[in-house]
Design brief:
Number of strands: 34
Oligomer: single chain
Mean pLDDT: 84
Structural class: mainly beta
Number of domains: 2
Radius of gyration: 25 Å
Distance between the termini: 66 Å
Amino acid sequence: MRRYPVTGVFGKAALGYILALLLLVCCVPVCRAQPQPFITEYEIDRDAIEIPFEYVHHEILIHADVDDLKGLTLIFDTGASSPTFDSSLKLNGSHLANNLIHEAEGQEPGETVWLSEIKLRGPLGAVTAVNIAALVTDLAQVGKVVGKHVDGLLGISFTSGYVVEIDYERQMLVFHSPRAFTIAGRAGDSSRSFMFDTKPAAPSRRVSSVMVAGKLAGEYDYDFLVDTGFGGYVSVAQAAAQQSGLFTEDTPHVTSTSFSLSHKFTSNKIRAGFLMLGDINLSHRVVQVDVRNNDRDGQTGIVGNRLLQNYHVTLDYPRRKLLLERVTRTEEPDETEQPSIGISYRSTGQALRVERVSPYSPAAVSGVKPGDLVVSVNSHRLAELSRSELVEMLKPQSGAVTLTLTRGEAETDQGYFSVTLRATSPYDWIPSTK
């Protein structure tokens, strides 16, 4: 067994985004007394240990033993500065401090405890952190978002004792002894492999989540948190997106719903005109623009699993290195890229009323307005179609759909007109006027 002591003092902690999307949060001690210093030791049974994981809704789920609790389900979360556990577990660790977790839409109470041991078991051995600080708070919302029971998050203070590979294809984490393995002498080719120097998200902390450098529109320097607790692709804070010109009032966008630890909030997704993550060109990819902490300046970007899953990821925390090696040729499209004609309907008995028309959509450009009644679809009157046939005809598709509508209150009114609409991505709906 190999053991590596690392000293540190627990102060402020940051929890990363969780799923589509958990906001970066700060854990601020309520009490003024300084927390006790502690020594964390890292133990590994071999030079390399494989730990299998489940990949559920773009979240990495692993199983861990925590003190006397066995087989807890944790999210492997490099965006969280420390392990975090649900308060319902009633962990028996020594109390260090009471905390407030500040989120974009509110705050939640928490507690910092000192745990004896967190252990991950693989087929050929285990990796362990002995004497490690953790946060305890209400994580009930996390399980609801993931759709599976979650006991906690495994934060970076556990990962920092090892060199860790994330193999999304095999669904395997590989923990290496930092004395036996490093990527520090390697270099990326800037085509299929990319090497990054990482920087601490909280420079004042001995152990901190890590960031890498990037650029937004207009050569705007910008840092991104490497966050495996974020199930999205890339997130950019709204303040930075607006200052850089990445997101303007005329930028086509789609509003989506995201979740923090305990709150639901809205975000805007856009197709980035220009965005670089080191040497990786992310221009024209769909990214998320979020309001965080009252839109304060200085909020970093976030890189999540939907991007990272396209790479074999190696984080050499002790040497501040990150290596991404491409394993896929194409990337998973964002669900908001689904082609649409821009109409939402409401059924009123035998009629189908247009309830909403999205600005700049194919329907809006063709003159369709809320309140219009659909008389026929592709020359088939509604009365001739079953519900399933109608739903199938109105699905977004690469072909065109022809609607006959009337602007009157009933089908018997005059004023029929027909439009042929071709579904396109909402990100291609360019405003014709400001």
